Amino acid sequence: MDEPVDSKTVDPSSVDRFPKQKAFNLGDVVTDAAKILTEEERTKLEQQNKRLVTPFQALKLEQEARKHWDLFYKRNENRFFKDRHWTTREFSELLAGEDPASAVSSSSLAKPDNVERISVEKKLLEIGCGVGNLIFPLIEDGHRDYFIYACDLSPRAVELVRKHNLYDERYMKAFACDITTEEVFQTLPEASLDIVTLIFVLSAIHPEKFQSTVANIYRLLKPGGVMLFRDYGLYDMAQLRFKPGHKIAENFYMRQDGTRSYYFAEEEVSKLFCQAGFTVMVNSYIHRRTVNPKENIDVPRIFVQGKFRKPERT
Questions:
Q1: Count of domains in the chain?
Q2: What is the mean pLDDT of residues 157-179?
Q3: pTM summary value
Q4: What CA–CA distance (Å, rounded) separates 256 from 241?
Q5: Does a structural domain hold residue 10?
Q6: pLDDT-based confidence at residue 139 (cuts at 50, 70, 90)
Q7: Pairing status of strand 193-199 against strand 221-232
Q8: Measuring CA to CA, which residue among 241, 288, 287 is closest to residue 261?
Q9: Torsion over CA of 251, 43, 303 and 29, rounded to 10 degrees?
Q10: Which superkingdom, per the lineage (predicted)?
Q11: Is residue 281 part of a domain?
Q12: Does residue 24 fall inside a structural domain?
């Protein structure tokens, strides 16, 4: 169950910059204000600076990013992440019948040889698909009126997607690629997609590659296409829990398994997408406290969630 978040932990001095999300759960605090840190939390962040990841180690983590994610999926397979049945509730653009982009023919999209595709107009790409925790719930819930592309840095994750009993190349295609590079354009042409999802993915990418990633998404979308975003917010509980020896750079950390995580400010996300040419539909922090008394869980989380549109042709 979700309980109210104490509004005293949110900075009231911030002025609204963009339209905010609506509250999807009881107790959500939706705001463009960052969390106000307690003295104890400030001390925790200061302690993290006492021992940083060395430049050599940071470079090695970047060079071996694919390897670490492959090892992650080798260990966990499909047991780690829960299916995201919440996405259609919080991103209505994913619902069958919704059309966020202009009706542009996309019959030129690449397709597997000898596979007859179901005739659909809309095209969706999930970046960082993992083992399919977003795309397969969509299919289970009957949202099959668009063709789904799904990519991940980890070839092992993509292989697990392809082995899923719901995987069917008549209406989906999973492929491995590094979205920070031009590699994605070997599978998808520019201006070919109606929707792109980037959910808990950008945070795993080095901050120096944020701009190239968002620029590639902009190129992939049709005019009027929509980018759906959610990721970890600044001062989220997980950020405050890191011990010395895990901080790579400001708001950027190494986990025990070698994967990495960045924690975003709301204004930073808006600026990143605006600089790439997007217009901001909505963008805000979501402060959410999830409580499960049975499992003795009481977790305050902070996310940044937004929707960004590629402008129509002028």
A1: 1
A2: 93
A3: 0.83
A4: 12
A5: no
A6: confident
A7: parallel
A8: 241
A9: -150
A10: Eukaryota
A11: yes
A12: no
